[in-house]
């Protein structure tokens, strides 16, 4: 790995930090894991309350419409807050930058997925693969649109009726799409225990990392503020 | 290694606003270099959301007619779960609502009346029935066309009870234990206000507020209280459940709650 002036020194080597058990590599810093956990909790609350408002059988089971509406509004509005607070952590900013940037290997990854090419080496990925990058950006944009249209529906005096009706339309259909995408996200995690372990404990097996994220150089710039 | 020297500079592949400069240059392989696709996707979603707001009226009409046609032939009922899939939505403000039938249902009429009374389902059924077919319009936007309600005119029950002078309004309570509604006496005496026993030519089901619900044809549907169990004649209008939370008491369709829907009557 090429040293740059800012990262030269003993810690720039790829040796795992002493706190990691043998054969494990550090993947997610504590701030990243906390932000993920808080966001997931709020999202779950928001989706569950939405289902109780929208699916007739659940609405009949739960009732308490005013309470459920309040839970839905506040959990939804608060979803971006953990991420915004997490921006204070260098490790989270570094992961965001990795999610943002698409290299040539990401296009190869997407093409391989579209061709259902599962051969070893066919899907090159850095710390995040192209699918994870697209998911992160899409759901971030969707949360903002849901929050905006939700606010238009919430504060009924704020905008004329046509806006409210339009906001309801966008909110309803995007909710359906976001629900499907979220279900996909959860299903992917369910199918990969090691990926879940990474998000839960912070570290993953070295073999898993080399197989799933061959271009990732664990233990980069953001290691020191991890713990 | 957390300190980036000032001569590090931003990555050379983008404008300086691509990220805080202290996140430094790419020193961890191919990660963090390349086009900022993530940001474009986020902005693209915002753009799509805005475009959706603008195009919503047209899209909604198209989808409603399309889904309406499909929903009519859909035996699974799944289309009913889609947005604008048509049909009624279930709203209840209580935690749970007991089921009542002919054996245990009672409707009490009291307040400023000469002859307070308690009706059973059978006595209500034996009274003169009126059938009204109108659109149902919810204040949240959904509308169900041409829905038949059938039952006893509220005015008939009020006349039977003998409304005293000084009475100005009617308050409705429900056996869900929570919901309440109200009408002025003049509104309550309209011929299109029913104590409904039947809906779409069958008994009013529990989910739709059965066995007996109020039906106020010219007003938004929150006025048509479900699970009706009490009618109290009062000397002034007492705002109901949603009205205490900001909805209009005089809830004429198209002339209240800031909405301009086509009137249902």
SSE blueprint:
The complex is a heterodimer of chains A (227) and B (265).
Chain A: E1 24-26, H1 30-54, H2 56-62, H3 65-78, H4 80-86, H5 90-100, H6 104-114, H7 130-154, H8 161-191, H9 193-201, E2 203-205, H10 206-212
Antiparallel strand pairs in A: 1-2
Chain B: H1 37-72, E1 106-111, E2 117-120, H2 121-126, E3 130-137, E4 143-153, H3 154-161, E5 169-174, E6 180-184, H4 185-188, E7 193-199, E8 202-203, E9 213-216, E10 228-234, H5 241-244
CATH topology category name of the domain at 106-244 in chain B: Sulfite Oxidase, Chain A, domain 2
Uncertain segments of chain A of ≥5 residues (pLDDT<50)? 1-9, 221-227
Sheet with most strands: strand arrangement of chain A: 1-2
| Mean pLDDT rating of chain B | 85
Strand content of chain B: 15-25%
What percentage of residues of chain B falls in helices of 4 or more residues?
10-25%
Percent helix of chain A = 55-70%
Name the structural class of chain B: alpha+beta
What report would you give on this structure?
- The complex is a heterodimer of chains A (227) and B (265).
- In chain A, 65% of the residues lie in helices and 3% in strands.
- With 227 residues, chain A is mainly α.
- Chain A has a two-stranded antiparallel ribbon with strand order 1-2.
- With 265 residues, chain B is an alpha+beta fold.
- Helix content of chain B is 22%, strand content 23%.
- Chain B contains five helices and ten strands, in the order αββαββαββαββββα.
- Classes of the chains: A mainly alpha (227), B alpha+beta (265).
- At the A-B interface, α2, α5, α6, α7 and α8 of A face α1 of B.
